[in-house]
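for the recovery benchmark. tokens below, seq after
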């Protein structure tokens, strides 16, 4: 079952002790916009999966993060949300992982919930088992069925 959140209001996402982000809802429009981000478009064709994942996470975060708490500069001064600040924040491995798990993965879980039952791995009938005897089909049928009387 898909659970719809019709409020579409921003929510706080706790990433680490003392660090939380105010994020907008993960919408189709946000994801499409992130996919069209210049950082994604400018990736070289031979970019690794890790490079693509980081670029996509940053593109999503730049669109989703509206505010934050617990982010400061080297001297401990609170810094405002900026695209450069978001990119720097996601360069911190535990923050990247928490953002992926707590925000992006929720959208993937919703996508998985669309299917009540998944198809068999190798096609719709791969999981099916036969009910006929395992003998040669013609012999099995001939041994069981009698020919109808002629006449």
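predicted aa per position
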């Amino acid at each position: 079952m898909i659970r719809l959140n019709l409020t579409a209001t921003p929510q706080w996402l706790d990433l680490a002790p003392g660090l939380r982000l105010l994020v907008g809802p993960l919408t189709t429009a946000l994801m499409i916009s992130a996919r069209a981000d210049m950082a994604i478009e400018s990736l070289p064709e031979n970019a690794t999966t890790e490079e693509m994942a980081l670029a996509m996470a940053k593109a999503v975060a730049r669109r989703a993060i509206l505010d934050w708490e617990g982010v400061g500069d080297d001297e401990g001064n609170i810094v405002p949300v900026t695209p450069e600040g978001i990119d720097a924040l996601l360069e911190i491995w535990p923050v990247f992982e928490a953002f992926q798990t707590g925000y992006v993965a929720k959208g993937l879980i919703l996508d998985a919930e669309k299917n009540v039952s998944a198809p068999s791995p190798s096609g719709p009938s791969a999981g099916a088992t036969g009910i006929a005897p395992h003998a040669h089909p013609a012999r099995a049928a001939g041994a069981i069925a009698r020919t109808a009387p002629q006449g």
